[in-house]
Amino acid sequence: MADSPVLSLPLFPLGTVLFPGAVLPLHVFEERYRVLVRDLVALPEPARRFGVVAIREGRDVGADGVRSLHGHGCFAQLRRVEPYADGRYDIVTVGAGRFRLDAVDGDSAPYLRGAVTPLPDYLGDADTVGQLVMEVRAAFLGYLRAMASVQGLSVPMPELPDEPLLLSYLVAATAVPDLTEAQHLLGADDTTSRLQSELALLRREASLLRTLTAAPAPDLARGPVNLN
Description:
Distance between the termini: 38 Å
Order of helices and strands: EEHEEEEHHHH
Structural class: alpha+beta
Low-confidence stretches: 215-228
Helix content: 25-40%
CATH superfamily of the largest domain: LON domain-like
Strand content: 25-35%
Oligomer: single chain
Largest sheet: 5 strands, mixed, barrel
Strand order of the largest sheet: 1-3-4-5-6
């Protein structure tokens, strides 16, 4: 099989992990990323994409905030742009495939660019993936029920996909609060191994949540919203 081509891609470092198929809204206020949005809007729609890469060291704001990045990221396809009079933007993007980050051009201005290699999505072990799908679906619903119980809510359970890849990305995008674990799932070699990791994670998280409901629990604070 021929290697995937190496592409040059604008990068948008963030303190979060984007997965294929997930919607990522962003409030763009830093000048360098305002320029990025203007550059993207000038392109034909299919070419309006950039790379979201989680920050390993540093922070996502400030002139020298990013010190190092994780090795895998996700293409973000620009779907909607809402400009403000002062030059800021609200944008909506959708994850559109994984890539390996091979190199970062720190001299590019005003925003980073990366040399990236698109990554295919392999199924993995076809003999076990069907059973894994059933187990992950059940574990995910159990996790959601436990979460609803902790929050004192009664919520309808969603319809979950049967397709292994879609299920693996749905779970990764909605049930993995830890950045390191999310990054591990993004870089998984294949769908089977991603589902195996998710099954263990969901069972662990559901067990922790059920422990919280077994005794008086403190208020649960929501995590911060990532704006830029």
